[in-house]
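Budget justification note: compute hours in this period were largely spent on complex prediction jobs such as the one shown. Inputs:
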Amino acid sequence: SAVISQKPSRDICQRGTSLTIQCQVDSQVTMMFWYRQQPGQSLTLIATANQGSEATYESGFVIDKFPISRPNLTFSTLTVSNMSPEDSSIYLCSASDPGVFRNTEAFFGQGTRLTVV
Amino acid sequence: KNEVEQSPQNLTAQEGEFITINCSYSVGISALHWLQQHPGGGIVSLFMLSSGKKKHGRLIATINIQEKHSSLHITASHPRDSAVYICAVEGGATNKLIFGTGTLLAVQP
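Corresponding output:
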């Protein structure tokens, strides 16, 4: 199994500012993902973080708003830029590696609960 | 219509009761995941299924590929089982997950 350390666990931010969320995995993984969970909603995939190249964003999400870094196989960051109250959500990172873990079992960070005021 | 539907959306049970949460999906999948989300937001993977049945402690998960349906059962439920249970399906080669809306379970002592 893998352990993912995500931080911060929660933050309250002023509108117009940016917040960077970090995820550290205790082993090398091929795939890392970033999700958003708006209040009362299910998880929505923001992007796939690709090691050494630009992230692959889902429809409705853009790099300028959610820049992602993946400098190596154990670490990734998501920045929520120029925040507005509509960005208040839980943000989660996830990792999987079909070549290492049982098939494609997914592991998740503890989540970052973001409130924008 | 969502690609992954869960029922019920909310469930309240008394301690000791047998609980069933259902998940139906409309897309072809390579695997189905059952996840548990606690109030702080963190998610724990409970099961990953591609066929048949798996058991871990008091939890049992089954899947019927032909009917595109899965169930999560909790035997002898306990207040510490209170959480949101999420069904997610995985299809294709990208390992992307499609999530259900979750079932909020409250087990009362």
